[in-house]
Design a protein that fits this description.
rod-shaped, two-stranded parallel sheet, 5 helices, 186 residues
Amino acid sequence: MLIQLKRLYIFLVLIAVPSSALAEDSKFVAKASVVDVESILEHSLAIKHVKKSINEISDKIQRELTEKEINIKSIEAELIKERGVLSEEKFNLKVLDFNKKVSQTQKEIQSKKSALEEAHSKAIAQVHKSTIEVITELAKQHGFNIVLPSSQVLFVDSDMNITLEVITKLNERLSIVDIKYSPSKE
């Protein structure tokens, strides 16, 4: 999950301020800055909130799954006991009903997991959007026309690193992200 976030940030963190913002004579002069994406992910209050919320929902799903597995195992044990007692036709009907319950449970759990993944992606996208907005504002404020992820740069003067400013402004702007988790009811 963290690797996906890093790739997403590395891919989308490049921001260019239009050259019209610079003097016409300096059209091809680059004023660059860097950000440490990993540090942003590590210190973002919003990312911490997202992780905590997603883990809580995931734990709830896991508890539900465990409960349902216990129920299914007890039904299966009861079915095994009834095998010699019931007629073949009645037993086969009970096996069919049991298989439907198992299949329905599997679909329900998969639906919940998919909904959780979607909620996570949307929450991360919201943090990403705010991060890009903060970086864009800082680039304009400081006159940068390019901002690169520090992981992609071999050397940079520490004065060119705006990571702490990005983290501070991001945490001021977005400390909590609502997780919009809504599993479908089938």
